[in-house]
Amino acid sequence: MELALILPPWPNERWKLALQMGVTHAVTTLPFHVAGGHQASNPPGVPQPIVPVDVPPPEHRPWDFMPLLLMVQRFREAGITVSVIEASPPMHRARLGIEGRDEEIEWVITLIRNMGKLGIPVWCWNWMAVINWARTSVTTPTRGGALTTSYDHELMERAGLTHVGTVSAEQLWENLRYFLSAVVPVAEEAGVQLALHPDDPPVPSLRGIARILITPQALQRALDLHPSPAHGLTFCQGTVSSMGVDVIEWINHFGKQGKIHFVHFRDVRGGPTNFVETFHDDGQTDMLRAMQAYCRVGFRGVMRPDHAPTMEGEPNTEPGYMMLGRLFAIGYMKGLREAVLKTEFSSPR
């Protein structure tokens, strides 16, 4: 079991901080070319465009071989291994099942094949149509005046429908089946593990767009659509915790099947329609028991801290992804991992 941080595709101070903490595995995005070397993104909860703009020509797209090769080499030469790609080509037409979905699926297939060629073992993806992860505040005060993200479903629903109108759960399930039938065989051939992330927040509908991966049972249904060793989960603890279920029970459930391919180690307080993200030692989940569960089910993959509060002295320009809270999280996770490994797996003296 390896600890990782999400790092940008170009070197910066976060790369050095990771190495100084002994973190040598990276979760990264795709090397989109925008100012400053960071992929442009919408704030959490803002609808995304259906028709992608400015998709580069073949050989220059960030999911093509050469841009990925150069990115992997940058990390390798710095002493960091790229273990997970947590980004995708445009996929909203595939999720909605509208004209152009087959082109988007071909882009995903290209990405997976190139990941296989470059030895990048895990792709983290999701099936959240139009709106990715959503929050209604990115300035909620938490311990000591740190700022965190929170979600209030009643506030979000006041926004009304998005530009795509209503989208049913049945549509999304059928489109997911279609997608998996095309992509899973490619992942098997390429030796890449697909790690499907649950819907965040786990509510049945968001501004008229169904969310289907909102319970552990729904995640199992998604796995059963196309059974394969290559088809598994990103087990996002915070999202599963906000479902209102026993996180440890479901680590055991999916872990014993070998279906946890990647872990987001974080926590919340609250339930599906109203929750606050917390520091890693301040949420509603027993994090020591969670770490024990991963070890006991034989999880040997990568986990990263995921979202953490913004701390004093930071500008809160990337809510959930500033650095100080994640430095604290890595230290906390290292302590948990060491305690578990020494008590669970060391030989008696």
UniProtKB/TrEMBL annotation:
Its cofactor is Mn(2+); Fe(2+). It comes from Thermomicrobium roseum (strain ATCC 27502 / DSM 5159 / P-2). Gene3D superfamilies: Divalent-metal-dependent TIM barrel enzymes. Belongs to the mannonate dehydratase family. Catalyzes the dehydration of D-mannonate. Keywords: Iron, Lyase, Manganese. It is an enzyme of class 4 (lyase). Pathway: Carbohydrate metabolism; pentose and glucuronate interconversion. PANTHER family: MANNONATE DEHYDRATASE. It catalyses: D-mannonate = 2-dehydro-3-deoxy-D-gluconate + H2O. The keyword Nucleotidyltransferase does not apply. It comes from the Bacteria. The keyword Nucleotidyltransferase does not apply. One of its GO terms (biological process) is D-glucuronate catabolic process. One of its GO terms (molecular function) is ferrous iron binding. This is mannonate dehydratase. Its EC number is 4.2.1.8.
